[in-house]
Amino acid sequence: MHPLILDCAGKPLDLSVPRVMGILNVTPDSFSDGGDFLAPEKAVQRALEMVEEGAAVIDVGGESTRPGAAPVDVDEELRRVIPVIEALQRELTVPVSIDTRKPAVMQAAVAAGAGLINDVNALQAPGAVETAAALGVPVCLMHIQGDPETMQDQPDYRDVVAEVGAFLVARARACRDAGIARERILLDPGFGFGKTPEHNLLLLQRLDTLVANGYPVLVGLSRKSLIGNVLGLSVDKRVYPGVALNVLAVWQGASLVRSHDVRATREAIEMCHAVQVAGPGC
Q1: Among candidates 222, 223, 205, which has minimal Cα distance to 256?
Q2: Which residue in the list 46, 171, 224, 238 is annotated as catalytic?
Q3: Which is nearest to 93 in space by CA: 124, 133, 56?
Q4: 201-226 burial, b for 16+ CB within 10 Å, e for fewer?
Q5: Model confidence pLDDT, tens digit, residues 17-64
């Protein structure tokens, strides 16, 4: 079984019950909140609001990974995220996560106070595994087919559940071989990253098979296009179905859910967990 408490550079992330990761995009082009929190003071205020709403960790991203997004160079990504992380390190009691694919950003972000690396590329960039191992913080490995610019062109799998699971277990093994302890690894199936709506639904339906590998599982379902495809809702109207998807994920064993809508999500997954642990002594 995975550890109940992760050490995120001295700040604990308690996964003894399901938790919410608050999303803080400091980008001009993210699909839901692009441009809203570019100024560091606005980003800090939003992070404080999410912690008050119940976020157990704040995930800072300076490069959009929405479908079709163009890559951002290292210097620009650093310019966006480092002042925010430095400010959050001073203001927050909860850990800060850095959402990046670049080893140089990982290194600078952890030096600035980040305590978790959340990589949509599963530490596959040259030098990424070695950098993460040397930094000594927990890592989240996500599955993606292709890259953000092209991933939704023609996603294709023979068995999406088996293939995503096999990839993530293999990446976890590679990380362990590089010196990253098992208890510092989380897995993310990558909903919406090189998957059709049908692929996403199947991955959620059978999320328990990924959980069964023994690593904490993080899911990112908040306001995703899956909701728009199924229900025909615009991004600003996807809160309630997003909460429902997160409850389904927690019911199947997800430890951490990444959300824009922290309070609603936190209350819903707490109720879900109460049902899960109810017993004769209640």
Answers
A1: 222
A2: 224
A3: 56
A4: bbbbebbebbbeeebbbbbbbbbbbb
A5: 999 999 999 987 544 444 455 678 888 999 999 999 999 999 999 997
DSSP 184: G
Q: Catalytic site residue 158?
A: no
User: Which domains, from first to last, does the chain contain?
Assistant: 5-276 (3.20.20.20)
Tell which residue, 69, 77, 65, has the closest CA to residue 38: 77
The token pair that represents 106 in the structure block: 């990982």
What pTM was estimated for this model as a whole? 0.93
d(CA 67, CA 186): 23
* Paired tokens of 177: 């071989």
**β-strand pairing of 19-25 with 256-259:** parallel
Q: 187 in the Ramachandran plot: left (φ > 0), alpha (ψ -120 to 50) or beta?
A: beta
Cα(64)–Cα(59) distance, rounded to whole angstroms? 13
Is 182 a residue of the active site? no
Indicate if the pLDDT at residue 102 is higher than 80. yes
Euclidean distance between CA atoms 176 and 152, whole angstroms: 30
